[in-house]
Design goal:
Blueprint: E1 3-4, H1 5-11, H2 17-25, E2 29-31, E3 34-35, E4 42-43, E5 50-52, E6 55-56, E7 65-70, E8 99-100, E9 109-115, H3 118-125, E10 133-139, H4 145-153, E11 156-157, E12 160-161, E13 166-171, E14 177-182, H5 189-196, E15 201-209, E16 212-213, E17 222-224, H6 227-234
Bound molecules: uracil.
The site of uracil has 8 residues, from α5.
Length: about 240
């Protein structure tokens, strides 16, 4: 669908609509290789190749990446056979069809990426990506230090050892809060790991994914990643586990 260029540029998270108008007038925006300076110009972000200062606009020519702060009570799928609300419901104004990158449980909250870029999804979710994900968890009670050490070292889940991870206490209470950083994302991994340490997870929130945090994003809010952020994710490489 065609829309005004300044609206498309602002929606891609590059800048405000007013600044986008300035970029257009300054001749810094091109559509399919032709510089466009007229403010009323329209384009179709799904079809046209839009560039700002020569760089492809995220969301132009198909691809965009969204960072959502998922509240609890939403499923991380596009459709739920049980009729529960999906994370897609939270993406008001997003016309492109996007899919979650991995999953957060219905009862979990925090950072979830969504994109229509299948290659990016594959590279972020592949076993070799080793992208650190940090979770804050509230536990039913206090786990024994030796059990936490075992989790950090690695335990066997589904017949395969977990990667070494880092765990630290962030708030000492009757129901303490811990932070755990993993470089993998297996099914219900955090909940299952703490169960092995004898403690049930009562709250779980993902607070960091690679270099992305929830700063400025209230639960239920989302933002478009900028072009440099997408590039950084696309070329994410780390051989080391999470720092200790
Ligand atoms: N691990 C879990 O157990 N649940 C989540 O939602 C994410 C990580």
């Amino acid at each position: 669908m065609e829309e005004r260029l300044q609206k498309i540029i602002a929606a891609a998270g590059i800048t405000s609509r007013r600044k986008a108008e300035e970029l257009i007038v300054q001749g810094r925006v091109s559509v399919n290789g032709r510089v466009v300076r007229e403010l009323g110009s329209k384009a179709d972000p799904d079809r046209d190749k839009i560039r700002v200062d020569g760089k492809p606009l995220p969301g132009s020519h198909g691809h965009l990446v969204i960072l959502l702060n998922k509240p609890t009570g939403y499923v991380s799928t596009v459709h739920d056979p049980q009729g529960r609300p999906t994370v897609i419901k939270l993406l008001e104004g997003v016309r492109q069809r996007v899919y979650p990158v991995g999953r957060l449980d219905y009862n979990s909250s925090g950072l979830l990426l969504l994109t229509n870029d299948g290659d990016l999804t594959n590279s972020l979710t592949s076993r070799t990506s080793r992208i650190p994900r940090t979770y804050r968890v509230k536990l039913e009670g206090q786990p024994a230090p030796k059990d936490l050490a075992r989790l950090e070292h690695g335990i066997v889940l589904d017949g395969r050892p977990t990667e070494p991870c880092r765990i630290r206490m962030v708030s000492e209470r009757e129901k303490p809060w811990y932070e755990i950083t993993l470089v993998e994302g297996r099914y219900h991994q955090v909940r299952r790991m703490f169960e092995r340490a004898g403690q049930r997870v009562v709250k779980l929130k993902r607070v960091r994914f690679a270099f992305l945090t929830d700063r400025g994003l209230a639960p239920g809010q989302f933002r478009y990643l900028s072009a440099p952020e997408i590039e950084r994710l696309r070329h994410w490489k780390t051989e080391a586990g999470p720092e200790r």
